[in-house]
Write a structure and sequence with these properties.
The complex is a heterodimer of chains A (171) and B (911). Chain A has 171 residues and is α+β, with helices and mostly antiparallel strands. Chain A is 20% helix and 41% strand. Chain A has one domain: OB fold (Dihydrolipoamide Acetyltransferase, E2P), CATH 2.40.50. Chain A starts with a helix and ends with a helix. In chain A, 34% of the residues are buried. In chain B, helix 25 links the parallel strand 33 and strand 34. The longest helix of chain B is centred in the first third of the chain and has 27 residues. The chains are: A alpha+beta (171), B alpha+beta (911). Chain A: InterPro entries: CheW, CheW-like_dom_sf, CheW-lke_dom.
């Protein structure tokens, strides 16, 4: 799945990324994968669900599974709000995979960046393995780094069944 | 592939299916001209169309089949062989069509084998049949060319009405020779040859139609409206399924929007909205119903292939099978229909293969040689019930239980505790087959799990009722439609959930001011009309901490035969909800069937009653009680035992069958006397010895002491226990403890390991002579055979019978009993359980009486759970001396006493 994204990257000299941030860390998401940016509201928690899933929400008549990027990356829960606080603050990025829509909950959404290959670096090998699996590359920006996330890898979690089904789809 | 060909494929497939069914009917009723005409017409239509479309292989085959059928019509006797041949031809046609569908062109290959056989078959009248048309170079079908269309629809501009066409056809000269069907184009005789000509000859319609048709339009085919099937007159229209699906989605959204509006209106007291909103609501409801109706199809569509399947199986398996189909007109959503089609076929195959015995076995069992599979469908509230019943041998539950243990699906203890209905459900496990031999039809253990999965994916439930020797009934309950369901909106904790109304029986308010929820060892139960209902708390199931004090509502739900209550905090209202599937990430959670958007825009989860039922039964939740089962199922559970649970030494739980207990007492400790170092109390004017239930129990010296009193005749004994805990009724599965004589063994009762005490051990401790059978000591000891499938009862009753002065020999089943009877000449009395798996007590006695000799008059006492009139009747017919309720010890001893007395009388008379 990484390969697919990498191929997409090579088609042009520059790539567009939607930037989002969690705990001050800047992340980039390939713009063609981002369908929506919206303020999540009315999230219905799903009991017994995997930890990463915050709940379900209604996005213009569609039921969307909300996924917390913070929890997905295993980052410390923010002290400002508790686990259920996604309704209060934060933004959501609408992503699609396998005909399903997901909402990636982040702290905030920044500008869209057009980045070329010159600032691109491969993933540092000393990164936490969880991060390494979810990251495509890192871009050196002025004063900070942009971690480009692999959307498919991000959405590839949960039950073993789901993973198996996804693998089958990919094949 | 062009539309024309696509249309042809769809239609031909339908026609062939109909022909299949009709042929089987025809075979059974060869004199029915209507059926023959119908078959003939359909095959003919296929043949004609193939000619148009340039499909020589299909055409040649269809032609040959048609010719043979023409012979039938001319009076040739219909033989099974010829029907088989035609069916084979149809299969070939289907295969070619499938190829055509896949590749867009007719596959190459030769059908000369079939064609020759068909021709040979048709040779009876000596009329040579024209050889199949030599592979003609078919002209590409001009776009105007019409397709036979058994249905009609509203006219497009430029089209003519059916009646006009019909009139035109009537006026047109044609090769028709069937006076009764002037619109038919039968052509039974040798067919005019080259393909170019064939369309004209075969399909008179064509000659007239091009000018009447809009280009590429599907034309109503009047020929199909022949009087052979007047019901076809109903004006129908063929609509693309996608169109319907889209319409359905739109209506679903409309329903949602209406719900939202209603919700807003509920909040605002503005009456200006009310009237139009009501109208909108009304119209939406009707629209929804209307669209739903377009998706409805008679279930008969899913059954269409079955007569053929059964016929083939019947031949393959050498069984005579009759398929009875009731309620084929019952309609259900096409989506649902699609899903259940294959499972139904599979189950019918299973019934034919496994369910029904071979003809020889049936005759031997005194059943009609012809086995019956009855398929019925009917509406029941918002669900449709489908039953597949056979009158075969029933499921081999013993084998299923054994197999379940072998395959590690359940422990022996679990399996023994299960009711028959529960055990039967093992057949739904993947790879589970008890068939001794794998046949081509079934026995590979593939399928029943798929059946169950398919049915459950559409929110259906499947149940099995089986009776040895009488057959098996599978009951499938499925919702009429999947898209929109009525659901009860409830609150549990902070969230709302939707509960499908189908599963909801009633609502009961519980709590401080209403009916209280009671607890047995922490498991909540509710008294509901003199029955106990196990309760699960929804928030508890979902992982929240449950509050000790249960208030709110209990939603009484039923899934299959399992009835249980779901405790929720609040019940709002019923709403029509559009079921949206769960995200792939969440589908593994068994408690949810999907989610939906409510009128207020909030997303709520739809609770899956099946999932809850499973949780209730598994008792994974601490508070989950034992699932209450229906009366019907309760009847099938033979061996539930009521046990008195008490605390013995060391805080452990012990139990004794309640039937053995005379009374429970609490005595003042001061009243215990110790003459000669043995504890006694004065009890009802007599002295009663006290025996501790465990070495660890010391008789208290102050306060009150709990006693379990056992008595036998004049004697009574007090068993000293720490505390009386509970009375439970459960299926007993006892692990026999070998080394301790004071225990029979241990069992799991209400989730606790409990020792079952052996009263026979304690009685002699109270009275030295108790076990020696004082009343019988003067007589010769007679030998008694005790037959009971339950080891527990054998162990329980043996000491009682020994105490009554018998030598006891035991057997675990009818077969073993017969063998023992033959082997042990001393046996003079038989005490047998009536309800045993496999051969019952009645069967045993029947076998004994049948053998004659000393068995013919041997006294038999039957033990039965329930003494019904029918059982008494049967017992009398088998000369069973007495029927005694299973736990009635004194009744049993009395009955044995009478036998002895009469035997003595007989002896003295003889002397």
């Amino acid at each position: 799945m990484k390969a697919a994204n990498a191929n997409g990257a090579e088609t042009g000299p520059t790539e567009d990324f939607v930037t989002v941030h969690v705990d001050g860390v800047l992340f980039g998401l390939a713009i063609e994968r981002v369908h929506d940016v919206f303020v999540p509201s009315g999230v219905t928690p799903v009991p017994l669900a995997p930890r990463e899933i915050v709940g379900l929400l209604n996005l213009r008549g569609r039921v969307v599974t909300a996924l917390c990027l913070r929890r997905r990356l295993g980052m410390a829960p923010s002290e400002a709000r508790d686990d259920a606080g996604v309704n209060d603050r934060g933004m959501a990025i609408g992503l699609e995979q396998g005909g399903e829509t997901f909402a990636l909950i982040v702290d905030g959404v920044g500008e869209v960046l057009k980045l070329g290959g010159d600032t691109r670096e491969s993933v540092p090998i000393n990164l936490d393995s969880r991060w390494r699996d979810l990251t495509i590359c890192v871009h050196r920006l002025e004063g900070r780094l942009l971690v480009v996330l692999d959307v498919d890898a991000l959405l590839n979690f949960g039950s073993k069944d789901a993973r198996g089904a996804r693998g089958a789809e990919a094949a | 592939m062009d539309d024309l060909l696509r249309e042809f494929l769809t239609e031909s497939a339908e026609h062939l299916d109909t022909v299949d069914t009709e042929l089987v009917r025809f075979e059974q009723d060869p004199n029915n001209e209507t059926i023959l005409r119908n078959i003939f017409r359909l095959v003919h239509t296929i043949k004609g169309t193939c000619g148009f479309l340039g499909l020589p292989r299909l055409e040649a085959l269809a032609h040959a089949a048609e010719t043979l059928m023409g012979r039938f019509r001319d009076g040739m006797p219909v033989s099974s062989a010829s029907v088989t041949l035609i069916l084979a031809t149809l299969d070939r046609l289907k295969a070619i069509l499938a190829d055509l569908d896949a590749t867009g062109s007719e596959p190459t290959g030769s059908d000369s084998d079939l064609i020759e056989a068909l021709e040979h078959m048709a040779e009876v009248g000596g009329e040579p049949v024209a050889a199949a048309a030599p592979e003609p170079v078919a002209p590409p079908a001009p776009p105007e060319i019409v397709l036979p269309e058994p249905v009609s629809r509203e006219l497009k501009p430029g089209e003519v009405t059916l009646d006009d066409l019909e009139a035109a056809f009537l006026a047109a000269p044609g090769p028709d020779e069937m006076a009764f069907a002037p619109l038919e184009a039968p052509a039974p005789a040798p067919k005019p040859e080259p393909a170019k000509a064939a369309p004209v000859a075969a399909e008179p319609v064509r000659a007239e139609t091009p000018k009447a048709e809009a280009p590429k339009a599907e034309t109503p085919h009047p020929a199909t409206e022949g009087e052979a099937s007047p019901s076809n007159k109903v004006q129908t229209i063929r609509v693309n399924v996608d169109t319907l699906e889209h319409l359905m989605t739109m209506v679903s959204e409309l329903v949602l929007t209406r719900n939202q509006l209603l919700e807003i209106a509920r909040r605002h007291e503005d009456s200006a909205y009310k009237v139009p909103l009501q109208r909108l609501s009304h119209v939406t409801a009707e629209l929804q119903e209307g669209v739903m109706k377009t998706r409805m199809q008679p279930i008969g569509n899913a059954w269409q292939k079955l007569p053929r399947v059964v016929r083939d199986l019947s031949a393959e398996l050498g069984k005579q099978i009759e398929l009875v189909m009731l309620g084929a007109e019952t309609e259900l959503d096409r989506q649902v229909l699609e899903v259940i089609k294959d499972p139904l076929t599979h189950m019918v195959r299973n019934s034919a293969d496994h369910g029904l015995e071979s003809t020889a076995q049936r005759v031997a069992a005194g059943k009609p040689a012809r086995g019956t599979i009855r398929l019925s469908a009917f509406h029941e509230g918002g669900t449709i019930t489908i039953e597949i019943a056979d009158d075969g041998k029933g499921l081999d539950l013993a084998a299923i239980r054994r197999k379940a243990v072998e395959r590690g699906l359940a422990s022996q203890a679990d399996v023994d505790r299960m009711t028959d209905a529960q055990a039967a459900k093992f057949i739904f496990h993947a790879g589970f087959s008890t068939a001794a031999a794998v046949t081509s039809v079934s026995g590979r253990g593939v399928g029943m799990d798929v059946v169950k999965t398919n049915i459950e994916t559409i929110g259906g439930v499947i149940d099995i009722a089986t009776q040895a020797g009488r057959g098996t009934v599978f009951t499938i309950k499925i919702p009429l439609t999947l898209a929109i369901v009525a659901a009860l909106i409830v609150r549990a904790g902070e969230n709302r959930f939707a509960l499908p109304q189908v599963a909801v029986l009633e609502l009961v308010r519980v709590g401080a001011n209403a009916q209280p929820v009671e607890h047995i060892n922490g498991s909540p139960v509710l008294r509901l009309r003199e029955r106990l209902l196990p309760i699960v708390s929804l928030s508890g199931l979902l992982g929240a901490d449950t509050v000790a004090e249960a208030t709110g509502f209990v939603v009484v739900a039923q899934v299959g035969r399992q009835r249980f209550g779901i405790l929720v905090d609040e019940v709002f209202h019923t709403e029509e909800i559009v079921v949206k599937p769960m995200s792939a990430k969440l589908r593994h959670i068994p408690l949810f069937a999907g989610n939906t958007i409510l009128g207020d825009g909030a997303v709520v989860l739809i609770v899956d009653p099946n999932g809850v039922a499973n949780q209730v039964a598994q008792g994974t939740q601490a508070s989950a009680g034992q699932a209450e089962t229906d009366a019907a199922e309760a009847e099938m559970t033979e061996a539930t035992t009521t046990l008195l649970v008490f605390k013995g030494g060391g805080g452990g739980f012990k139990a004794v069958p309640l039937s053995l207990v005379t009374r429970l007492e609490e005595i003042e400790c001061e009243k215990v006397e110790w003459p000669g170092g043995r504890p006694l109390i004065q009890y009802r004017g007599r002295l009663m010895p006290l025996v501790p239930a465990d070495d660890g129990i010391a008789i208290r010296t102050e306060g009150r002491q709990a006693l379990v009193v056992f008595s036998d005749g004049e004697r009574a004994m007090g068993l000293v226990v720490d505390e009386i805990v509970d009375i439970v009724e459960e299926r007993l599965d006892i692990e026999i403890a070998a080394e301790r004589s004071d225990l029979i063994g241990s069992a799991v009762l209400r989730g606790r390991a409990t020792d079952i005490i052996n009263i026979a051990h304690f009685l002699p401790m109270a009275y030295d002579d108790w076990a020696r059978g004082p009343r019988k000591s003067q007589k010769d000891v007679s030998t008694l055979l005790l037959v009971d499938d339950s080891a527990f009862f054998r162990d329980m009753l043996s000491p009682v019978l020994k105490a009554a002065g018998f030598q006891v020999v035991t057997a675990a089943g009818a077969d073993e009993a017969l063998a023992t009877l033959h082997a042990d000449q001393r046996i003079s009395v038989v005490v047998t359980d009536i309800e045993m798996p496999g051969r019952t007590g009645f069967d045993l006695v029947a076998a004994m009486r049948g053998e004659g000799g000393r068995f013919a008059g041997m006294p038999v006492i039957g033990l039965t759970g329930s003494v019904g009139a029918e059982a008494v009747e049967r017992a009398r017919a088998l000369a069973i001396t007495d029927l005694v309720a299973k736990f009635d010890r004194s009744g049993l001893v009395a009955a044995l006493g009478e036998i002895d007395a009469s035997a003595e009388d007989a002896l003295s008379r003889a002397a």
